[in-house]
UniProtKB/TrEMBL annotation:
SUPFAM superfamilies: Family A G protein-coupled receptor-like (SSF81321). GO terms for biological process: cell adhesion; cell surface receptor signaling pathway; G protein-coupled receptor signaling pathway. This is Adhesion G protein-coupled receptor E5. Residues 55-72 have a biased composition (Acidic residues). Residues 404-645 form the G-protein coupled receptors family 2 profile domain. Residues 49-72, 669-693 are annotated as: Disordered. It is found in: Cell membrane.
Amino acid sequence: MEPKWALLLGFILSFRSFTTEGSSYTSDKGLSSVIPAVCHGVQCNNGPTTASADPDLEISGDTDSEISGDSDLEISSQPYLTMSTQASLDITASSFPAHRQDVIRATQTSETTSQNAFVSPKGAAEQTEIECDQFKSKPDEDHTPEKLNQMMSLLKDSCESLNDPVEKHFNAEELLENLCNSTDDLLLEGKVADGENLSVFLDMVENSMRLIGPQLKDPVTKMETQNTYAEVALTRNQTPPSGSVTLSTDSALFSTSWETVVGKAYSGFAFVALFSYKDMNSSSDLSHKTSRTLQEDSRKRLHVDEKKITYQLNSKVVTAVVSNPDTKKLSDLMMLTFTHEEERAESGGVAYTCVYWNESEKVWSGRGCVKEWSNSTHTVCHWSHLSSFAVLMALYPVQDTFASVLITRVGLVLSLLCLFLCILTFRFCRSIQGTRNSIHLHLSVCLFIADLVFLCGISSTHNQVACAIVAGLLHFFFLSAFCWMLLEGVQLYRMVVLVFHTTLKHLYLYAVGYGVPLVIVSISAITFPKGYGTNKHCWLSLEGYLILSFFAPVCIIVILNIIVFIITVWKLALKFSSLNPDLSKLHKIRSFLATAVAQLCVLGGSWVFGFFLFQKNGTEVMLYLFIILNSLQGALIFIMHCLLSKQVRVEYHSLFVRMCPYKKKGDYSVSTEPSHSSQKRLQSDQSTGESQL
């Protein structure tokens, strides 16, 4: 055949092969070239593909030339690419301008997959169509949010536009931005909290990313809005990619391999996307939707009745999408590292579980999920399938151990016994009557009632009214105990600084000791009545700021006491350095001050540990420290103010002698002598300014 005739015939055949009505490539439409990419992951209907050419005809083209409607195709008789019934024509990314870097592969075969593009000569093949029914909105269903229907309609129009070479196509970046903005609106409106809408919503996001992902231009695309964060990695090459790929959002890190992303069949491209939702975890309705299997597993693992376990999302919900259409059972596990919304380590009462959203059952499920490790800030999970994932925090009541129960009961009983002896001593011991003694008496009464209520009612959570009363009594009497300690510090200051009128009036004592706590408790009960009593303890609720109505006054009292003690010590040192110090009086005040400081340390220190104990992350160590220090309060007051006081020991000895009738008469005369000296000491005490009450 003459070269010029071959050239003419080759041009005619090549022109027809690129302008046939059934061809999937249209030169003047940039997104038409990515139809095979869009088909990947969604259902496509392909017609039969046929291609024929004169086997003697050899067609070659400059691979560096740009193929378009007005481009020139160089034809020569030199062998470069042969088209026959067994040959295939590959049009790679190097044949297109930069904005069309998509792989189009036309293969002449009897069976073509939905992921392969084709060039059909002579109009023998039908155009590849993308199935867009998955984006069909359901306006007839009242519970489907209107915003969700609008987004589904937009995605459906974009999907259908790819099937029409004449219609204007949507930009992939614009579609991704619309998806993020619509997601923001839905989350702000709280329209996806129920299981039905959440399943539709998450399914829409997955299908949207399969539609948008292959159309993106950049290898890595990131987009962040108010409530969403998306990151997409895309690769296009003739050979399948290999190695690892990692995506991250502000709350999760997703790691897998390109081999898993590609799957069994490679279509010239691969993409992986990670979508994060910021406010979805705040919905308590979603946290309670757990599968029966998950509840049963939690019961066996935690050894707690499943009805007592409550669940809470402690991470943002994320959706992972890959170009591999078969993600129900992956050969290689994918890894997700979640950042906790609330920093809380696994301990007694807290356990973490990796879960995914089961769209068919509309619940959180743990099937196919393995938790590798967890700490207070992060949880690492492995998955054998893809979906939307999160970390579920299981909250369950911790059963008190035998040791803690034993220490609590023994310690409180010991404290109650010592406080009871203190009350009797301060009330009936005549040699120590005075203002300080009266303060010690009321302090002991408050601690005695508080410890008794604590021992009998702290765990009475079965009766809501009784539990609230117990919490109110504990609130009042513990606050009152701290107020009486403050009064003791003020009294010591007056004894050192003032010469006359050193005692406090009864009205002031009762107003501060009982009036201030009563006002605080009354205001707290009126403003937040439901805060008295919790599911775990009959104490103040940790929700809101009610707990501050106890710890704020306690902190103020402790700080004031420290200031008063510092000033008192300074004044006392000046007294000792004076020219004519009353050493007996100063030594007595110094001993009073030492006991008051020790008392403040024990009572204040116990509630430092008590503050952390009643928090959500309280530990068993804090429990034991609180119990031990709380038990030492009564014993400490009895030892410092009774056993270490010589006057009280004399009174005890006198009482013991009177209670023993078998003693000889001479013994009584000896034992009564200290009684007279004690009266003199009483007069000496009164000379320091303390009045009897």
